[in-house]
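Model: Ready when you are.
Researcher: Fold this.
Model:
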Amino acid sequence: MLPLLIVVYIGGYILMGACLLFALLGVREFFSGFQNTGLAPCGLAAYAGAAALYIVNIAGGGILWHIIWFFGVIIASLFCAAIKKRNIYNAV
């Protein structure tokens, strides 16, 4: 608990890096839950989307870049499903 409080107190890029780490761990857990149910989600698009969101935030992108990020993640997910001949339910 104490190291987490130290990271929050320091803030800045260290806190953003810790948040990115937790986001990537969350994506991994989220997709492992889907894989346990028999679905085959495209994890690459999710990992890239999570990392791209933090890049947009570090670069100071405004609302336009966040909208581009949002639609880019959706398109990448659907494109991944189309390439790997997956069911559309696996893409979502």
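Researcher: Now this one.
Model:
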Amino acid sequence: MQTLEERITQAEERLQQLKARQQKLLAQKRAVESKKHRSEETRRKVLLGALLWDQMSKDESTKSRVLFELANWLSRDDDRELFSLPRKLLPMMGSAT
């Protein structure tokens, strides 16, 4: 027969195991929610981009406005290349004005 101390020790160990399991389950739940949020955000961006692309193909004014905004907003050359925008010139270092 177990002593009271042994039973308490076993109960504490079981409690620690259950707490660890709970933390693992919470972490998994957060990971699933985070993945879902990122997926939904990506879907929104794609749909918005498709709408904008459609509007640009139908209206030259919209196309010009969007490309102007993109030219100011995009900084990476590979991103700019997707829209046939010229490379962004970097300011020269050490030039006096």
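Researcher: Key takeaway?
Model: DSSP finds three helices and no strands in the chain.
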